[in-house]
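=== Given protein ===
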Amino acid sequence: MEWEDAMEEFFQALGTIGVFFLLVVGVLAGLLASVLQGGRNKPRNIAIGVVGALLLPFVVALAAAGALAAGGLLLIVFLALLGAAAILLIVHLIQR
């Protein structure tokens, strides 16, 4: 399965509400990261947070689709939060 096909299948299975939740989690993680950095880099942090929030659930779905289906939307949102936080932390550590 190609990446494009896998990503399309993932977002179709997740649905509009699920994608909306992932985006909200990413934006909130980015805003929180900006607050922790003293209000700096807000647009960058929001963009990175959204990417992380979309990326980790997608990667987990590729690796173990059954786990995401069993965990439901709550697990997906939790993974989105972890993904956003991890990517934000990695970028912060790289830019030090």
Observations:
- The chain has a mean pLDDT of 82.
- Residues 3-90 form one domain.
